[in-house]
């Protein structure tokens, strides 16, 4: 189940169970309270296509953040980033090329060759 702390027509962020488990393990390893703390997903300028994703752990959401909860993981997204990533799904992938979090963003019109940056 997910909850957004603000009523908005922007499509919400989804999180796969695998991504939630990985993030919760990392949060726990950092000694953070998973009932309050969460994963911040944001968009920043950079990369060869113009925008890139950023992630970090925050102890609590900012007052204007959208807050989603999936599989017991809280995800914080600031309003400016929601303009670019609303409707996205966060997943965790493993494989020969390395493991990591991946954002599947329906708003992307092009990505750079390495997949690290995008344009909407």
From TrEMBL:
<dbReference type="Pfam" id="PF01521">
    <property type="entry name" value="Fe-S_biosyn"/>
</dbReference>
<dbReference type="GO" id="GO:0005506">
    <property type="term" value="F:iron ion binding"/>
</dbReference>
<dbReference type="GO" id="GO:0016226">
    <property type="term" value="P:iron-sulfur cluster assembly"/>
</dbReference>
<dbReference type="GO" id="GO:0051537">
    <property type="term" value="F:2 iron, 2 sulfur cluster binding"/>
</dbReference>
<dbReference type="InterPro" id="IPR016092">
    <property type="entry name" value="ATAP"/>
</dbReference>
<dbReference type="InterPro" id="IPR000361">
    <property type="entry name" value="ATAP_core_dom"/>
</dbReference>
<dbReference type="GO" id="GO:0051539">
    <property type="term" value="F:4 iron, 4 sulfur cluster binding"/>
</dbReference>
<dbReference type="InterPro" id="IPR035903">
    <property type="entry name" value="HesB-like_dom_sf"/>
</dbReference>
<protein>
    <submittedName>
        <fullName>Iron-sulfur cluster assembly accessory protein</fullName>
    </submittedName>
</protein>
<dbReference type="InterPro" id="IPR017870">
    <property type="entry name" value="FeS_cluster_insertion_CS"/>
</dbReference>
<feature type="domain" description="Core">
    <location>
        <begin position="12"/>
        <end position="116"/>
    </location>
</feature>
